[in-house]
């Protein structure tokens, strides 16, 4: 059984025992977090009805806070001597999926 969940503006495919990296969640390490399900696949049955999915709860445990890869932003304008360098590194949370409940 696996589910597609909405996590931080993205959709992730998760199963019990998977470790997923999502955008930063404001929760302490070891805390339990819940994600809304968008799709649920259990063997041959596929559930995508929002009424049925409102009862499905995907829970996970926060493992650690991490940082994503460094992104270099370089801006350059020709013949003017204008250059600008900027960096960005997204904050992320590592979550281990512990249960998918309400699957019926």
User: What fraction, in percent, of the residue positions are helical?
Assistant: under 10%
- Proportion of residues in β-strands: over 45%
Stretches where pLDDT falls below 50 for ≥5 residues? Answer: none
Number of strands: 9
Structural class: mainly beta
Mean pLDDT over all positions? 93
Number of DSSP helices?
A: 1
- Major sheet attributes: 7 strands, antiparallel
How would you sum up this structure, described in words?
The protein is mainly beta and 104 residues long. It has one domain (2-101). The protein contains 1 helix and 9 strands, in the order βββββαββββ. The strands form 2 sheets. Strands 1, 2, 3, 4, 5, 6 and 9 form a 7-stranded antiparallel beta sheet that branches. A two-stranded antiparallel ribbon has the order 7-8.
């Amino acid at each position: 059984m696996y589910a597609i969940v909405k996590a931080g503006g993205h959709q992730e495919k998760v199963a019990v025992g998977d470790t997923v990296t999502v955008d930063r969640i404001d929760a302490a390490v070891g805390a339990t977090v819940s994600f809304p399900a968008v799709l649920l696949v259990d063997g041959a049955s596929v559930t995508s009805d929002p009424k049925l999915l409102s009862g499905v709860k995907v829970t996970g445990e926060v493992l650690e806070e991490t940082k994503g890869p460094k992104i270099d932003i370089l801006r350059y304008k020709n013949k003017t001597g204008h250059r600008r360098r900027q960096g960005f590194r997204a904050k992320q949370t590592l979550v281990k999926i512990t249960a998918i409940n309400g699957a019926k």
